[in-house]
């Protein structure tokens, strides 16, 4: 193959820097994100290998959209679009306010609970963030929550899906490292809850100690009849959750199929409430098409870039970064964490997994460290990569459904404290492996 | 968007209320092509709903009747795959793709126009290259090495030619996307000092 | 002159098969006296495992080590030669068919037009069958929901009375754990044991009765043709060495894992020869159906059945 212009002469190290630099510059021009990564992939494919290598990009696009596990994304988005058009979400949050309204930040805390439940329903992140972004974000803003706190709760909560089983991140790690997926699920559960409780703690502290972060607790007495009417708002959402979780845990449906059960549950709820119509369905489906177009094409760009980077020798480059640095296992693990964090800023998790796992897992095993523990650390890092700028998928997913006045900059700023909390949880996991492997 | 407070009123209005999605239309620069892309979107949206129904049917047949099908999962994956790809084109016509506009918004109209032209041109060229690569892929999925027409199949027990269909669709989609960027570029060139 | 090639595997990085394949790349360097170096990439690094032939033909990667049945969608012959369900009860039989029974000629006839050259064969061995329900024979398969990947295998399970469910590898664990499916065609015993499959499905059938995959090592034909004959021979010999290591070591590991599994209270089922023969008979009826799919598939069928009859493995 002959390159059009010889980028290969640069060597992989400088080429990596150039690649990330070009990504940032193109991002700043206002070019749509999906096309930024696609264009960078194209430039480097042409520059390193010539026109024939562009088929790597189209081949990866084909594989990406032709994947069964991704079917759950449009299902979650369709659920969200229907909930957005029905009164279910509003009634749910009014009922939640009745229960949690007596403490400051109560509804935000409940949103984190909801996101833990959603995490138990799905294996990949994306759908839940869209769902929370369409449902919980406007409701929290309506009730007077601080915008940054509400955004952070939605993105960080929505990313819990990777830590709380089932999780495709952990399954992919298990298959790569050849370790028990069941053990990984067991090990990640507590750290997942730890993360959720850190979020809860943060929300409560902010609500109580900062003015105007959360609406003041409700003081007035609500008549019993009104309470009963409000609590009715819980019934339909609880039924839908029971259907979906029930179908997964009773072995009726696979995780991906269960997302379609959720769609049916929400559609039925809308019918019960008399809100369902053809137009309701059509509008919801059209919104799903548009939202999926946005979020899937971000993934398309990311997968294209990773294929080209691997072809350029990315794996060798990452391997070169850690070989011979130190004999101290702690230093090596910390270095791995640092590499995962930096890569997490620019690539999506599948790409990071493809690049680093072949290198990291054998090293971890040869150092005598527990690969299950490392799997949980890896997963924690991926949680951070969902949120970290400039390439933070969770922020992009939220942006795809957030009110237009909320910019990406606003979202990333709101996420910083939550990234800090994730880093804290990661540090805890490093210091106290017992949290995962007891 | 402000919504009525009482649940009753909300019920009444839920059907009437034009949601932000139905109000949304292709950007003027997308031209006639953009309007067609928008209209055709309904077909792919129906595909998503159909995928949900097939999955539900599969769950029912397998769990209740112990009679799983060999086609439901592959069909659902295919329909969603089509919708994913088309959704990207759909968002181009509506200018709904996510972008970082910090610097863009700070620029004067002339600077923004220059960036618009650059973005459309670069995206058009990139889509053109991808259409070419998708064509290379298509030839392998549609013709056997000996040159006879032979659609690539999935190799499953059902063995449908869906892989070939999806690869053909990817080629057509990249071509149309290239054309859509060309239309947008042409209109941006004609429209002096546009305010975004 | 020195040569460096880049191969993509169909296995993930930490999988034992991948580690054997990495061992092969070292053998290649040794056997060729450092003239050939091969970089092996794990599954999905450059392109998906189903798309490697196109990437090799285009010169993007140079070769692959992969289960041939992944290409059954291009020509049913790939599915039939890679996994004629029920044909083999030992890796040695399949390897002999490929090396001495006309298999490698068929492989080249199949993949040469795609721009690939077949170098040699290996296999992880006879797969173990993952099951939550006790299975002692074909009759027990009735109504069992079994995950089966692409290829002939699903048709055979259906003909045997089971209900094949099409699921990707990433959904097998949770679906089996929760009982969406009762059984799965997955991997060899030791790998199933490592990934925790036997822990959630405590009635594995070992040795399996269903699958013994043909793993091909092949590369870009033009690049192969450009190699000196001496290096070509060294490469072929290196694959033979890799095959021997993989087959014997995995068998040892399987036996070791069987011991571990039994200690954990997992019940291992072994089918009687009669039951295995019954399943094979059902499978053979399906071969004929696949053979009708393409002229190459018919040719594979004819060569295969002739070989089996010649060896007394088929009446
Ligand atoms: Na999850
Ligand atoms: Na990131």
Average pLDDT for all residues of chain B: 87
Q: Given the helix and strand composition of chain B, which structural class is it?
A: mainly alpha
SSE run of chain B: HHHHHHH
Write down how many β-strands of chain B occur, each being a DSSP E stretch of 2 or more residues. Answer: 0
CA-to-CA gap between the ends of chain A? 53 Å
String of helices and strands of chain A = HHHHHHHHHHHHHHHHHHHH
List the helices and strands and how they pair.
The complex is a heterotrimer of chains A (438), B (196) and C (315).
Chain A (H helix, E strand, L loop, with lengths): L11 H17 L4 H17 L4 H12 L6 H14 L2 H13 L5 H16 L5 H16 L4 H12 L9 H10 L3 H29 L14 H8 L3 H15 L5 H18 L5 H35 L1 H9 L6 H18 L2 H18 L4 H17 L5 H7 L8 H24 L7
Chain B lengths: L6 H10 L3 H4 L7 H33 L8 H23 L7 H5 L2 H34 L19 H29 L6
Helix pairs in contact in B: 3-4, 4-7, 6-7
Chain C lengths: L2 E7 L6 H16 L4 E6 L10 H6 L5 E5 L8 H7 L8 H10 L2 H9 L4 E7 L6 E3 L13 E3 L4 H8 L3 E3 L3 H10 L4 E3 L3 H6 L2 H4 L14 E6 H5 L3 H35 L9 H19 L3 H16 L5
Parallel strand pairs in C: 1-2, 1-3, 6-7, 6-8
Antiparallel strand pairs in C: 3-9, 4-9, 5-8
Helix pairs in contact in C: 1-11, 3-13, 4-5, 6-12, 12-13
One sodium ion binds next to helix 16 of chain A.
Description:
The complex is a heterotrimer of chains A (438), B (196) and C (315). Chain A is built from 20 helices and no strands. Chain A is an all-alpha fold and 438 residues long. Chain A has one domain. Chain A is globular and about 75 Å long. Chain B is mainly α. In chain B, helix 3 packs antiparallel against helix 4, helix 4 packs parallel to helix 7 and helix 6 packs antiparallel against helix 7. Chain B is globular. The radius of gyration of chain C is 19 Å and the shape is globular. In chain C, helix 1 runs antiparallel to helix 11. The complex binds sodium ion (NA) (2 copies). The site of one sodium ion has 8 residues of chain A, from loops.
């Amino acid at each position: 193959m002959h390159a059009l212009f010889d980028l290969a002469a640069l060597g992989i190290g400088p080429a990596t820097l150039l690649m990330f630099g070009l990504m940032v510059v193109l991002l700043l021009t206002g070019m749509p994100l999906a096309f930024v990564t696609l264009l960078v992939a194209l430039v480097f494919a042409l520059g390193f290998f010539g026109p024939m290598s562009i088929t790597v990009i189209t081949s990866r696009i084909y594989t990406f959209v032709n994947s069964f596990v991704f079917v759950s994304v449009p299902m979650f988005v369709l659920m969200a679009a229907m909930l957005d058009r029905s009164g279910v979400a509003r009634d749910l949050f009014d009922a939640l306010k009745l229960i949690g309204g007596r403490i400051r930040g109560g509804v935000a805390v409940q949103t984190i609970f909801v996101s833990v439940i959603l995490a138990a329903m799905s294996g990949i992140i994306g759908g839940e963030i869209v769902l929370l972004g369409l449902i919980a974000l406007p409701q929290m803003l309506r009730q007077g929550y601080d915008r940054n706190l509400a955004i952070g709760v939605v993105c960080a909560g929505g990313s819990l899906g990777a830590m709380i089983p089932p999780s495709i991140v952990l399954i992919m790690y298990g298959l790569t490292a050849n370790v028990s997926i069941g053990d990984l699920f067991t090990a990640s559960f507590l750290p997942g809850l730890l993360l959720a409780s850190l979020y809860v703690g943060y929300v409560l502290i902010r609500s109580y100690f900062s003015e105007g972060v959360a609406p003041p607790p409700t003081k007035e007495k609500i008549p019993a009849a009104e309470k009963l009417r409000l609590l009715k708002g819980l019934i339909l959402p609880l039924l839908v959750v029971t259907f979906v979780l029930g179908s997964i845990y009773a072995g009726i449906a696979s995780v991906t199929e269960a997302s379609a059960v959720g769609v049916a549950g929400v559609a039925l709820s809308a019918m019960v409430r008399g809100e369902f119509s053809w137009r309701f369905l059509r509008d919801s489906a059209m919104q799903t098409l548009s939202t999926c177009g946005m979020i899937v094409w971000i993934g398309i760009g990311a997968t294209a870039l990773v294929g080209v980077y691997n072809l350029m020798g990315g794996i060798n480059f990452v391997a070169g970064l850690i070989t011979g640095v130190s004999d101290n296992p702690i230093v090596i693990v910390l270095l791995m964490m640092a590499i995962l964090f930096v890569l997490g800023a620019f690539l999506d998790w599948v790409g990071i997994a493809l690049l680093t796992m072949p290198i990291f897992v054998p090293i971890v095993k040869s150092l005598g460290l527990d690969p299950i523990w490392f799997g949980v650390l890896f997963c924690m890092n991926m949680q951070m990569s969902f949120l970290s700028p400039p390439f933070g998928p969770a922020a992009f997913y939220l942006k795809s459904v957030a009110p237009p006045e909320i910019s990406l900059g606003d979202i990333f700023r709101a996420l910083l404290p939550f990234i800090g909390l994730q880093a804290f949880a990661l540090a805890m996991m490093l210091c106290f492996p017992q949290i995962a492997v007891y | 968007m402000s919504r009525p407070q009482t649940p009753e009123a909300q019920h009444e209005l839920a059907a009437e209320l034009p949601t932000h999605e139905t109000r949304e239309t292709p950007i003027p620069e997308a031209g006639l092509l953009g309007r067609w892309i928008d209209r055709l979107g309904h077909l792919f949206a129906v595909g998503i709903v159909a995928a949900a129904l097939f999955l539900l049917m599969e769950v029912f047949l397998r769990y209740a009747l112990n009679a799983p099908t060999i086609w439901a999962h592959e069909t659902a994956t295919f329909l969603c795959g089509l919708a994913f790809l088309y959704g990207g084109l759909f968002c181009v016509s509506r200018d709904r793709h996510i972008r970082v506009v910090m610097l863009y918004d700070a620029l004067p109209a002339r600077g923004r126009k220059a960036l618009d032209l650059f973005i459309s041109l670069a995206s058009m060229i990139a889509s053109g290259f991808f259409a070419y690569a998708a064509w290379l892929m298509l030839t392998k999925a549609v013709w056997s090495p000996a040159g006879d027409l032979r659609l690539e199949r999935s190799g499953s027990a059902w063995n449908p030619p869906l892989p070939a269909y999806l690869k053909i669709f990817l080629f057509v989609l990249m071509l149309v996307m290239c054309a859509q960027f060309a239309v947008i570029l042409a209109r941006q060139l004609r429209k002096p000092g546009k305010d975004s | 002159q020195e040569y460096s090639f880049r191969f993509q595997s169909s296995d993930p990085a930490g999988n034992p098969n991948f580690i054997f394949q990495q061992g092969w790349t070292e053998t290649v360097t040794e056997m060729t006296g450092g003239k050939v170096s091969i970089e092996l990439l794990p599954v999905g690094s450059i392109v998906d495992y189903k798309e490697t032939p196109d990437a090799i033909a285009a010169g993007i990667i140079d070769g692959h080590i992969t289960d041939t049945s992944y290409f059954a969608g291009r020509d049913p012959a790939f599915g039939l030669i890679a996994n004629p369900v029920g044909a083999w009860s030992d890796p040695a039989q399949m390897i002999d068919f490929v090396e001495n029974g006309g298999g490698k000629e068929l492989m080249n006839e199949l993949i040469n037009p795609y721009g690939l050259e077949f170098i040699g064969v290996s296999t992880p061995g006879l797969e173990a069958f993952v099951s939550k329900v006790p299975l002692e024979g074909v009759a027990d398969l009735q109504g069992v929901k079994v995950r089966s990947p692409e290829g002939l295998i699903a048709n055979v399970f259906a003909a045997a009375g089971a209900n094949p469910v099409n699921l990707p590898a990433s959904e097998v664990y949770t679906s089996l754990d929760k009982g969406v499916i009762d059984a799965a065609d997955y991997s060899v015993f030791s790998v199933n044991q490592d990934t925790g499959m036997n822990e959630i499905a405590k009635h594995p059938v070992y040795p399996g009765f269903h699958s013994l995959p043909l793993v091909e090592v092949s590369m870009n034909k033009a690049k192969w043709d450009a190699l000196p004959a001496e290096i070509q021979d060294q490469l072929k010999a290196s694959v033979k060495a890799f095959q021997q290591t993989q087959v014997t070591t995995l068998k040892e590991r399987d036996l070791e894992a069987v011991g571990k599994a039994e200690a954990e209270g997992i019940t291992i089922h072994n089918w009687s020869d009669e039951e295995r023969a019954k399943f094979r008979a059902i499978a053979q009826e399906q071969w004929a159906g696949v053979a009708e799919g393409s002229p190459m598939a018919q040719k594979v069928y004819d060569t295969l059945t002739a070989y089996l009859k010649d060896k007394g493995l088929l009446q």
